[in-house]
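Take our chain:
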Amino acid sequence: METRRDRLRAATVKEISETARRILVEEGPDAVSLRAIAREMGMTAPALYRYFDSHRELLRHLVGDLFTELTGELHRSAKAVPQGDMSGKFLAVARQFRRWALAHPREYALLFGAPVRGVGHQEEVDFAEESARRFGWTFMALFLELWKKHPFPAVPDDEIDPRLRPQLSRYRDEVVGVDLPLGVIQQFLKCWVRLQGGVSLEVFGHLEFALDDAEPMFELMLAEIGPELGLTYTPRDARATGEHE
């Protein structure tokens, strides 16, 4: 049973995370220090150690919060589309991923940009890792639903580059945990690389040398990916797809 102390602690942790995010957005990741957060909250830096053992733990908690928020946005986009409309689901989730990224560039950079000092990868599963896996599974679950309902053409396993086969097999067995042809796993990763890569180039300003509005290029990419998955591409129309600005 949750006690009053538990509720107060949860509220303080939430405020710490929100303060860390505000500093991240306004000043960048290097400014997100325990001292800066404590100053914003009217606390002492040592007092924060009652809630987070280290600066690293705090940053990883923020990462977990951001992945949780993003995952929720993607789920809501998918649910706004009629259950059987797989094409609509794919487009809605892909577009919402881009929309969130563009609206939150500093947060996106923390999750998908160059590794931030103090965050790093760790072997044990913590809140950040669990949240990242839930985010990743959002796309994989959509992909598996599509494959189950409308199997699309996949490269036979023996035609896959021999350098890729053991890597795809390891990813399938250790991460996905579903017995699928390696060609299906390869197709999923190809789609993800194109989707996330295109969004990253736009968010980080690497398309500005040629484009001041990259949305048509993003839509062109979706139009090319769709048929590869047996999906029908529909031009973006918020009224038709249930997408929200």
Notes: The first helix runs from residue 4 to 27. The domain at 1-52 is CATH 1.10.10 (Arc Repressor Mutant, subunit A).
